[in-house]
Amino acid sequence: MGEPGHSQSIKINGKSHDDSNLSRSVSNSLRLSTSPLDTFQSPPLSLTRKQTTTHDKQLKPFREEDIKILLLENVNQTGKDILNEQGYQVEALKTSLPEDQLIEKIRDVHVLGIRSKTQLNSRVLGAAKNLIAIGCFCIGTNQVDLQYAAQRGIAVFNSPFSNSRSVAELIIGEIISLSRQLGDRSNEMHRGTWNKVSAKCWEIRGKTLGIIGYGHIGNQLSVLAESMGMKVIYYDVVNLMAMGTSTQVPTLDALLKDADFVTCHVPELPETRGMIGKEQLKQMKDGSYLLNASRGHVVDIPALIDAMRSGKIAGAALDVYPSEPGGNGDYFNNNLNKWAEDLRSLKNIILTPHIGGSTEEAQSAIGIEVAEALANYVNSGVTLGSVNMPEVNLRSLTMDEPNHVRVIYIHQNVPGVLRKVNEVLGGHNVDKQMSDSRGDMAYLMADISNVNQNEIKDLFHQLESLSCTLRTRFLQSARQALSS
After folding, report:
1. pLDDT tens digits, one per residue of 321-334
2. Closest CA to 353 of 378, 323, 374
């Protein structure tokens, strides 16, 4: 660093800067820490997956107050608190944003937090020049163009397990409600009509539940259903260990013909779009029930309407739809989905506004899990839990390792890259290094020692000049940044 009072012009990323402002310029251009902190804390144990010691130190990226985070769709307070405690600039909005407004809003944002309504396509992501991470505070990530994000070096995190119990409990409640026609009886009572009937009302004990997709939600639902006396069968494209006395069936057709209740818990993939259509509904038992709390395109809803009007299907519960509004209001009509009013007119159908995971417990757990993953990635470069990056982790640096810098290098997965990277780093002592690939991109982390600021700038520019570079980040400890 320059002597106090001395100023000279230095070029960083093609721009001239006075070295009196070099600390902030280097921080923003090279993604280094200049935060004047004297103490360090270990990364959360839930993220490092190992026991850390009191001698570990937390790496930091820029000045913490220079990290800009935008949270949309009313992310839970637990997530906001964790990110605020890191010292980041956190702005939280209760709703999603229209695409053009979102593009303007995220131009300078480093981390974006969303739930299920915000759509992050290539146009939106292409405008986010500083974006390094996206946190999906939900299970699904189909609202993000994951491949394009990876190509731009943007890591995406989600919470695949935290709301599983909430969704499973909702399905159990809906199974009972449909079998007893509780929705219809409740609506009649609200209109002042007393209609005490038992025709076509059933206990669920002894009935067969067919689960399509036996993941975290499916197997929890399996346990709950068996505890209430149901027989459980399930279909999945991979062989999975059965919970309790449930049984995996070999085909979807086999499940449809034997189940009294069919419930869908699959991701949105080309293979699952229209998975339950006219032909599948014909294969279901007469008087059976269909539930969908997975993705809106899994069930052909016009075909379901016809099947319910004919009496083939006795009841249904839907929590997801092909088109969903961006906020609360009187939007569930034919302008949103052309069949919405026909759907609303049916008897014994439960329609809910994508609330499967909307419980206080689930949203709190999601907030913690995703916010911790984001902070760990921003601060340490660890990709554990990322859905579009290789999972790479390095042990924490210790207080006995001064003058170290962590190199984060995201690159195209092409032959010869590691040789070129090692040629760049070869003049320095690489204490530890790890690399992994996923498809056509790869992620490298390396800790190197005995480097100063000028050497770091040179390393940064050499790595950035490689044709296969997607993104380069350098992390160092706050104490080191001050002493360099």
Report:
1. 999 998 889 999 99
2. 323
